């Protein structure tokens, strides 16, 4: 595991975008797993800037980690009234790069047969050749995607019930400002499993801010446990890159020899 500590969110985001761009230059038809949430927004903005300077996404294949179950993108609604991750990904990056529509894969939150859809999503990843680089954040309770505490580290794409902390965190981030009541939020999501994520050839995990410092330390230096599903990074067999700002790294052990600061 390579842990890179940057001064602040801006530097962290630029560093992450450089890793993604390097992969695209090396393998133009690479398969990238994308993530939602506030953490990768800076990375996406930097990738958009790089695209304007020539970074070509035309052969890139995208698979998103997750989507709320019960909602989907509705372009007739204003942004504040549409909290789908479909909408998020198009608003934050896909509308601004030359990725092909047919190469974008995001779980369908409106599917009538979620179990069958989840099987098909797994098959689509395999058909694409597997994920070359999976972008990841980390939830306040240490979850990856919507793999809540207690999720199996062998889990595959499935429907998952959201924990109270996830509902609270996402309510603050998305719904409160839009005037939604907490009970209006979807309580389930379609998510890639931890086993699905661990099948990627490389993972790139991002975290910023003091609020994430304690859980980052648990995930990277604590025991591997399904109570902190992001701790699975410690058993990842491919290339694992963690990019943190100084605040998120503030509770890591000083003895971490793999850590670099710049």
Keywords, please?
three-stranded antiparallel β-sheet, 7 helices, alpha/beta, single chain, 262 residues, Rossmann fold, 11 strands, eight-stranded parallel β-sheet
Residue share in helix: 25-40%
Biggest β-sheet: strands ordered side by side in the sheet? 5-3-2-6-9-10-1-11
Count of alpha and pi helical runs: 7
H/E series, N to C? EHEHEEHEHEEHEHEHEE
Q: In terms of per-residue confidence, which ranges show pLDDT below 50 for 5 or more consecutive residues? A: none
Topology:
Blueprint: E1 2-6, H1 9-26, E2 31-34, H2 41-52, E3 61-64, E4 66-68, H3 85-92, E5 104-105, H4 114-127, E6 133-136, E7 158-161, H5 164-175, E8 188-191, H6 194-198, E9 202-207, H7 213-221, E10 239-245, E11 259-261
Parallel strand pairs: 1-10, 1-11, 2-3, 2-6, 3-5, 6-9, 9-10
Antiparallel strand pairs: 4-8, 7-8
Helix pairs in contact: 1-2
What this model shows, in words?
This protein is 30% helix and 18% strand. With 262 residues, it is an alpha/beta fold. It has one domain (2-261): Rossmann fold (3-Layer(aba) Sandwich), CATH 3.40.50. Strands 5-3-2-6-9-10-1-11 form an 8-stranded parallel β-sheet, covered by helices on one side. Strand 9, helix 7 and strand 10 form a beta-alpha-beta unit. The longest helix has 18 residues, at 9-26. The mean pLDDT is 91.
Give the gist of this structure:
The protein is an alpha/beta fold. It has seven helices and eleven strands.
